[in-house]
Design goal:
two-stranded antiparallel ribbon, mainly alpha, about 10% strand
Length: about 220
């Protein structure tokens, strides 16, 4: 299915010579997903509205980025079912056909909310996580309780899990985002996850004194 798409989800793409700097396409797609996942009025969730909002934030002319926004929506986010049409706004001017059909505005699908969990930061995670699991299917429910707990006790760890999961999809290491199944990460070598698991398992075996010593040690280096 993904091979038939004209584009790709590029939210983690970086420049070849600057591994830590996101490409313009990555930033643009992230901005679209963030806008569609926020509680803004329908006008701001049309192609023009999205273009104007992003342009305002970057102090550029919205018409200069409209074609990129159009392409990201029509060739990537909509075909991949990350976003979908949420309704249409009536037009009072312009071609009669457009007045009759109206201008579409969009919102995130469940898959889109999952992608948003990987890019929108820790501060937005509680509401997004609640929204995502409100639409869960039975095989996803086993992850809800533990991730909700981790969200309050280890937000950075929880955020990193969503980042790794969605990034694995973007890199074609996971075929489909849904149903949400973290077991898909098991076959993907991730040094950070391996270290985190090793630390957690070791910590469980420590005595109370050893746990306190370990925490003191980590506080000195982190």
């Amino acid at each position: 299915m993904k091979s038939k798409l004209k584009g790709k989800l590029a939210i983690f793409d970086t420049f070849k010579t600057k591994d830590n700097e996101l490409t313009g396409e990555a930033k643009r797609q992230r901005a679209i997903i963030t806008i569609l996942g926020s509680d803004v009025n329908p006008i701001e969730r049309t192609r023009t509205g999205i273009s104007q909002k992003i342009a305002k934030n970057h102090q550029i002319a919205w018409k200069n980025i409209y074609s990129g926004i159009f392409r990201d929506l029509d060739e990537i986010l909509l075909p991949m079912e990350i976003a979908e049409e949420d309704g249409r706004l009536p037009l009072k001017r312009g071609p009669k056909a457009l007045q009759e059909k109206g201008i579409p505005y969009y919102h995130l699908t469940k898959k889109g909310v999952l992608v948003g969990l990987a890019i929108n930061g820790i501060e937005n995670m509680p509401l997004q996580l609640k929204e995502f699991f409100s639409k869960s299917v039975p095989e996803e429910e086993e992850f809800e309780k533990i991730l909700t707990k981790f969200m309050t006790t280890s937000p950075n760890f929880t955020y990193s899990i969503f980042q790794r999961y969605v990034k694995a999809f973007c890199e074609n290491k996971i075929n489909e985002l849904l149903p949400f199944d973290l077991a898909k990460l098991r076959d993907i070598s991730d040094e950070n996850l391996i270290i985190q698991k090793e630390m957690l398992v070791a910590f469980q075996k420590f005595t109370t004194q050893e746990k306190n010593e370990a925490v003191t040690f980590l506080e000195k280096i982190i």
